[in-house]
Design goal:
The chain has 70 residues and is of the alpha+beta class. Helix content is 57%, strand content 23%. 0% of the residues are buried. It has one domain. It is built from three helices and two strands, in the order H-E-E-H-H. Strands 1-2 form a two-stranded antiparallel ribbon.
Length: 70
Amino acid sequence: MFRLIGMIVVALVIVALIGWYRGWFVVQSTRQDGVHQVDVTVDRGKIDQDKAKLDRDLHPAATQQTTIPQ
C-alpha cells in the first residue's frame, strides 16, 4: 500500500515539474503586511497546444489529409 501511495506521489511530482517547465503552471507569491499570498495559474491553452502537438507527433498519418480516388 505504501509503495502505491509513493508511486502516485512521485507521478504527481513528475507531472508538476514537467508542467512547470513547459509553462502549464505559474506560481507567484506576494507578501504584504506580513501576509503571504500564493497564486497558482494554470494555462489551459498551453496544455491544449502541447497535447495537440504530441498527438500530431505520435499519429502523423491521422493528421494528413487523404484523397479518395474516383
